Amino acid sequence: MSELLLEVKDLKIHFFTDEGVVKAVEGIDLKIERGKTVCLVGESGCGKSVTSLSFLQIIHAPGKIVSGEMVYYRQTPDGTTWEIDLAKLNPKGRKIREIRGAEISMIFQEPMTSLSPLYTVGNQIIEAIRLHSKATKDEARKQAIEMLHRVGIPNPDRLIDEYPFTLSGGMRQRVMIAMALSCNPTMLIADEPTTALDVTTQAEILDLIQELQQQYGMAVLFITHDLGIVAEVADDVAVMYLGKIVERGSVDDIFNAPKHPYTQALLHSIPKVAMKREDLEPIQGMVPSPFRRPNGCSFHPRCSKAMDICSQIVPAVTAIDDDHTVQCLLYEDVASRAEVERAQS
Ligand code: SF4
Question: Which pTM value belongs to this model?
Answer without folding.
Answer: 0.89
